Each structure stands twice: as structure tokens, then as C-alpha cells.
């Protein structure tokens, strides 16, 4: 496998003809460190866990999806706007492309859930969800409806802090992700994205009651998270899947 591409705060290439456009707003990034061998078996074909200083990470990312749109059409205000909470891992493929792997994607609109599952083979799940800002705190709640495990839940409250002028290498590693790896129809593929540089803020985890990580097949965290961040959000463009993900070597 070639060396992974550099971690860059800006997208390596602009997507001129997007497949999808959307905004990601009011994001909380909560991350735990894990040994790569713990999650290696959960990676799509042709990828291995991406690492920073020998460790990889499990992310619980809660946010508001806003005005999802196809191609260059205006985003849809109701069906295209909804809370979402993802459990994600970090991946790299044989071409050196760094990305994320979604283990679960809870969302509160049934139609986008069905479209994501059928059209993109993404692990979307229908859940009751809220995002409630109050002063300098934001609370994200999620309770799964379908397809299951029914009742899987999360309730996260973060307190936002000062703007980060220069993120640390780990903070760049966890947030500057310019694509995702997934098993699309026809095999493993890489779906690129681009967006402006993240506006990131320090954050403190006020409370976290969740079993989404364990429901996604990952050992439940027992330690405090190693990173908690907040972002007011960015506009995003997603490109078409590139199906050239070749076999990657196994993790030792």
C-alpha cells in the first residue's frame, strides 16, 4: 500500500459537477481512540484503518443536515433538512486516499433514509431526533425506530468554547476528511466531497448517554473521549463514486 495522502485542511480537488449538495450545521464531533486491530474487520474491502500516531478513532458526530439537493438544483427545505447522528471510523485505501467509513447514520426523515439505503447502500436508520441549542450548549437526542436495533439511542450535550485558530494535527486528522469509503453497487468505492475549511471551536462534553457505538458493532467506549469539537457548519458538495478501490493488505 502506498503512503496515505497528506492530511490537508482544504479539499485537495474542487468538485465542479456535484452529485449532491447540502449543508452540515451545528456539528458536535466526539472521538475515542482505539487500536486499529479492534476495527480492522469492519472496514470495506480494499481499505484499512487510518491511523494517527499508531491509533485510529471512533467518531460520534451529531449535526443538522440542511437542504439536501441533487446536482445544482436548490436544496429541498423540508425533506432535505433533518437531524443526523453518525458513528464513523477512519479509513485509507490502496491509492492512499483517506476517508471515513460510516457504521450507522441515524436520521429523522424516512424518505432520505430509504433513498440512502437503496440508492447508495449507506447504513441509514430512521430515528426520532432533536437538536436543541440553549445558550452556549447544544443537546442532540436520537432514538432509533427502524430497522434496528430498535431503541438504540444517544443523548449528547456539548458546551461550545473559543474558536480554534490553528487546529492540532489530530483535530485536522479527525475533521479534514475529503471522502468516504463504502460498498456501493458494483463493489467498494470512494465518494469524494469538498467544502470550505472547517470553522472549529473547542467544546466540553457535558453529558453523553449513548449505545449507538456498541449497536454499530464497535466495543462501547469506557474512557473519556480524547477530542470534543464543535462547528457551526459548512456547505458541502459530494461527487460521484469512484469505483477503483483495490485490495488492501490486512492489518497486522
From TrEMBL:
<dbReference type="InterPro" id="IPR023375">
    <property type="entry name" value="ADC_dom_sf"/>
</dbReference>
<dbReference type="Pfam" id="PF09844">
    <property type="entry name" value="DUF2071"/>
</dbReference>
<protein>
    <submittedName>
        <fullName>DUF2071 domain-containing protein</fullName>
    </submittedName>
</protein>
<dbReference type="InterPro" id="IPR018644">
    <property type="entry name" value="DUF2071"/>
</dbReference>
Amino acid at each position: 500500500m502506498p503512503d496515505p495522502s497528506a492530511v490537508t485542511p482544504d479539499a485537495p480537488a474542487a468538485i465542479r459537477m456535484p452529485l449532491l449538495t447540502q449543508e452540515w450545521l451545528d456539528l458536535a464531533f466526539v472521538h475515542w481512540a482505539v487500536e486499529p486491530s479492534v476495527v480492522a474487520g469492519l472496514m470495506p474491502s480494499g481499505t484499512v484503518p487510518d491511523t494517527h500516531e499508531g491509533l485510529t478513532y471512533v467518531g460520534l458526530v451529531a449535526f443538522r443536515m440542511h437542504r439536501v439537493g441533487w446536482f445544482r438544483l436548490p436544496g429541498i427545505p423540508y425533506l432535505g433538512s433533518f437531524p443526523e447522528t453518525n458513528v464513523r471510523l477512519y479509513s485509507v485505501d490502496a491509492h492512499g486516499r483517506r476517508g471515513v467509513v460510516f457504521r450507522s447514520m441515524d436520521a429523522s426523515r424516512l424518505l432520505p433514509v430509504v433513498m440512502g439505503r437503496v440508492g447508495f447502500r449507506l447504513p441509514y436508520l430512521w430515528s426520532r431526533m432533536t437538536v436543541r441549542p440553549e445558550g452556549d450548549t447544544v443537546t442532540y437526542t436520537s432514538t432509533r425506530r427502524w430497522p434496528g436495533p430498535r431503541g438504540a439511542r444517544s443523548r449528547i450535550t456539548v458546551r461550545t468554547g473559543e474558536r480554534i485558530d490553528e487546529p492540532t494535527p489530530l483535530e485536522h486528522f479527525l475533521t479534514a476528511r475529503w471522502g468516504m469509503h463504502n460498498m456501493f453497487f458494483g463493489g467498494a468505492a470512494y465518494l469524494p466531497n469538498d467544502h470550505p475549511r472547517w470553522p472549529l471551536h473547542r467544546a466540553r462534553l457535558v453529558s453523553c448517554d449513548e449505545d449507538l457505538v456498541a449497536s454499530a458493532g464497535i466495543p462501547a467506549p469506557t474512557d473519556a473521549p480524547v477530542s470534543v469539537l464543535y462547528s457551526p457548519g459548512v456547505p458541502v458538495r459530494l461527487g460521484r463514486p469512484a469505483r477503483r478501490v483495490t485490495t488492501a493488505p490486512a492489518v497486522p
